[in-house]
């Protein structure tokens, strides 16, 4: 337990973190990679270049400081990050390295204001938080390895099928090279894929939601080809997957992970809302609901630029067909002439609350949503304005957690 004196010191630093938090975390990553360049094999380089990782860490540190007297309040955040750490291969020996450079970054940014007393308080707090992560992750590692079909670290999977789903999204069906059983997963979870791209100095690891269904003998991921024109590395891996990974290629895959998952015991109406490639976990949820709870009220809403960029449409409509309690609605931001002629969508433009209230019978439901951050912010704001409680607004960020408010 932290001493009361150190609790008071950390709470007093909250205003400083509001001002300097991202500067501190930016300096932290500079120090970390200068001292341990091998860790670039774990971290997402694109998120680093875009500043998303620095912002996410700053928000986590800020949340820890605000809740320092009741760290159990941030346990859901801890579990979400711990799932990512397990799938990436973060180990207990990494935590002292992180602690050393986080404290060093605080000192570098704050200078003389970071007294020995302040650094000592943060060192003690970091030790407690790190122990919490290590404990949670140890159980996750144990579970991932010991479950039926489970394994430790990464396992080779071959691409059994490669299917183009839209102009920008392609599905990869992955089967284990050893022909053995694979770990089951909950709809909404993801896997990590580790790749050595020719010409790249460091290994790249990306996490992709599973778009297939539990119980299959393969995993399916559906990957959007990102635009690399801005040179932020955001599309290096997706372009490589689309252009160079073919049927028969072998990828290194982690066991499934993630806290964003369908509650299969909930009997209430469910609304699945997605934008762009954010539909991947929703399709997995929808198939599970169709197979296990066909009498449950399910509304599937998806937003795309136009029909050419709308992936898995036929698959979703096939799952909904013949199930009177299921319904689908499509939103196209910029429908083509063919889309208009075919009546291929239900709303033009962007999702908004008045339209949601037209197509969703009641706010007394559980809402799952995923997509680009601006899309998720719009959905979250609409649901909040409608009076949907926070516990019934469930969402997943692709990459480091951002802000929805």
Automatic annotation (TrEMBL):
NADP keyword on record: yes
**Keyword Membrane in record:** no
Q: Which residues bind heme b per the record? A: 85
CDD domains for the chain: flavohem_like_fad_nad_binding, Yhb1-globin-like
Q: Which residues bind NADP(+)?
A: 276-281
Cofactor binding notes: Binds 1 heme b (iron(II)-protoporphyrin IX) group per subunit. Binds 1 FAD per subunit.
**Active site per the UniProt annotation:** 95 (charge relay system), 137 (charge relay system)
Location of site Involved in heme-bound ligand stabilization and O-O bond activation? Answer: 29
Could you say which EC number(s) this protein's record lists? 1.14.12.17
Q: Which family does it belong to?
A: Belongs to the globin family. Two-domain flavohemoproteins subfamily.
For this entry, the protein name equals Flavohemoprotein
Q: Which gene encodes it?
A: hmpA
